Amino acid sequence: MFNNLSDKLDKALHVLKGHGKITEVNVAETLKEVRRALLDADVNFKIAKEFTVRVKEKALGQNVLTTLNPGQLMVKLVKDELAELMGGETAGVNLTGTPTVILMAGLQGSGKTTFSGKLANYLKTKKNKQVLLVGADVYRPAAINQLQVVGEQIGIEVYAEVENKNPVEIAQNAIAHAKANGKNTVIIDTAGRLAIDEALMTEISNIHKAVNPQETLFVVDSMTGQDAVNTAKAFNDLLNFDGVVLTKLDGDTRGGAALTIKSVVNKPIKFIGTGEKMEAIDVFYPERMADRILGMGDVVSLVERAQEQYDEEEARKLQKKIAKDQFGFDDFLNQIQQIKKMGNMKDLVGMIPGAGKALKDVDIDDDAFKGIEAIIKSMTPLERTEPKVINASRKKRIAKGSGTSITEVNQLLKQFFQMSKMMKMMQGGGSRKMMQMMQG
Ligand code: GDP
């Protein structure tokens, strides 16, 4: 996420390292680089300029008051300003309606349908809502199909009227259907066009007036940079929407949309999309995003994700197994599956402080575990529970069965034994033993 911007800001802020105190000269040098980094990220000139002016004022006002070194102080000032630019306080969604109606607006291809599914899934699993998805795109039958596929995947009912060409009517009927069927949340996915046109704007405006939604969310593809900002402005002038959803932040986006949209439309970014899967949705926290941009990681989100996957019962069972030396490859596979549920790998690695930068050129993808899974799946049940029996001929068979090499099988076995040993030590009051081991 925002690799390029992160890199450039990092370099800019390094200029100040090694200087004893903040002076007008080194602040000016640093801020020139910061401004250049923002412009390269597709932030518009005026916003980039105001940004650096504000940081400069704060920096020069604090030169003697602080015990931090200048580098750290500047990092903090830039971080606070970035967070402020992206929205300051975190904004939730209003779910108080009976039913709550959420209207999705945006251009075709922005990720509206995908996001409607993600949001439905999020509200169902995290907020315990009974959700109805509504397909109000009367021009593209494929769009309704797509929504139906999504709905099936996440177990959420999709309301559509294939014969009806009136989206306002469909939306109204859907709300009546929701009321009659005990659904307290209605998410309406509307039609989009490739560019803003009058017909699209009139239609969405009519739906908006007719259903009077609690939340109107504008969905925009973050890869489109300044275009995203212009589109947002047009939709906001018409709908006075409540919040923005930035999609495709997992891609190689420069960051301009994320950084400027709030200051142009004065509406908060509420959610981000970070992948094609239904789980790839995050509530947007400006502060945490600023941390990530400056390479400080996002430990809070990482821990939250881990907690979401944590099952106390399972953890207890696992502990017993480790204590009895019964931790096997099935448990290992299980652990991998848990990690995978936490989100896409690149995203997770980016949340570890420093790791995003260190590993930015390493190609981490969701297939990272594929080889390991294939190897484990080629093992017999005995080999999985008693990995010690895996001798040379078994290794050969496993490598062949999984389409890997004996070296890879050996590597996995080695990692597995190391991990088992470590887990056992950590359990048996062994932090002392661990320390001894690490010391030599
Ligand atoms: P719509 O026309 O606005 O409904 O857009 P879709 O939901 O059909 O999305 C367009 C394309 O973008 C699809 O191929 C989606 O899989 C993809 N997409 C949507 N959201 C994301 C995201 O957050 N990350 C990535 N990488 N792809 C996404």
TrEMBL record:
<keyword id="KW-0378">Hydrolase</keyword>
<keyword id="KW-0694">RNA-binding</keyword>
<dbReference type="InterPro" id="IPR000897">
    <property type="entry name" value="SRP54_GTPase_dom"/>
</dbReference>
<keyword id="KW-0687">Ribonucleoprotein</keyword>
<dbReference type="InterPro" id="IPR042101">
    <property type="entry name" value="SRP54_N_sf"/>
</dbReference>
<comment type="subunit">
    <text>Part of the signal recognition particle protein translocation system, which is composed of SRP and FtsY.</text>
</comment>
<dbReference type="GO" id="GO:0006614">
    <property type="term" value="P:SRP-dependent cotranslational protein targeting to membrane"/>
</dbReference>
<comment type="function">
    <text>Involved in targeting and insertion of nascent membrane proteins into the cytoplasmic membrane. Binds to the hydrophobic signal sequence of the ribosome-nascent chain (RNC) as it emerges from the ribosomes. The SRP-RNC complex is then targeted to the cytoplasmic membrane where it interacts with the SRP receptor FtsY.</text>
</comment>
<keyword id="KW-0342">GTP-binding</keyword>
<dbReference type="InterPro" id="IPR036891">
    <property type="entry name" value="Signal_recog_part_SRP54_M_sf"/>
</dbReference>
<dbReference type="Pfam" id="PF00448">
    <property type="entry name" value="SRP54"/>
</dbReference>
<feature type="binding site">
    <location>
        <begin position="106"/>
        <end position="113"/>
    </location>
    <ligand>
        <name>GTP</name>
    </ligand>
</feature>
<protein>
    <recommendedName>
        <fullName>Signal recognition particle protein</fullName>
        <ecNumber>3.6.5.4</ecNumber>
    </recommendedName>
</protein>
<dbReference type="InterPro" id="IPR013822">
    <property type="entry name" value="Signal_recog_particl_SRP54_hlx"/>
</dbReference>
<keyword id="KW-0963">Cytoplasm</keyword>
<dbReference type="InterPro" id="IPR003593">
    <property type="entry name" value="AAA+_ATPase"/>
</dbReference>
<keyword id="KW-0547">Nucleotide-binding</keyword>
<dbReference type="InterPro" id="IPR004125">
    <property type="entry name" value="Signal_recog_particle_SRP54_M"/>
</dbReference>
<feature type="binding site">
    <location>
        <begin position="189"/>
        <end position="193"/>
    </location>
    <ligand>
        <name>GTP</name>
    </ligand>
</feature>
<keyword id="KW-0733">Signal recognition particle</keyword>
<dbReference type="GO" id="GO:0003924">
    <property type="term" value="F:GTPase activity"/>
</dbReference>
<dbReference type="GO" id="GO:0005525">
    <property type="term" value="F:GTP binding"/>
</dbReference>
<dbReference type="GO" id="GO:0048500">
    <property type="term" value="C:signal recognition particle"/>
</dbReference>
<dbReference type="InterPro" id="IPR004780">
    <property type="entry name" value="SRP"/>
</dbReference>
<feature type="binding site">
    <location>
        <begin position="247"/>
        <end position="250"/>
    </location>
    <ligand>
        <name>GTP</name>
    </ligand>
</feature>
<dbReference type="InterPro" id="IPR027417">
    <property type="entry name" value="P-loop_NTPase"/>
</dbReference>
<dbReference type="Pfam" id="PF02978">
    <property type="entry name" value="SRP_SPB"/>
</dbReference>
<feature type="domain" description="SRP54-type proteins GTP-binding">
    <location>
        <begin position="268"/>
        <end position="281"/>
    </location>
</feature>
<dbReference type="GO" id="GO:0008312">
    <property type="term" value="F:7S RNA binding"/>
</dbReference>
<dbReference type="InterPro" id="IPR022941">
    <property type="entry name" value="SRP54"/>
</dbReference>
<dbReference type="Pfam" id="PF02881">
    <property type="entry name" value="SRP54_N"/>
</dbReference>
<comment type="similarity">
    <text>Belongs to the GTP-binding SRP family. SRP54 subfamily.</text>
</comment>
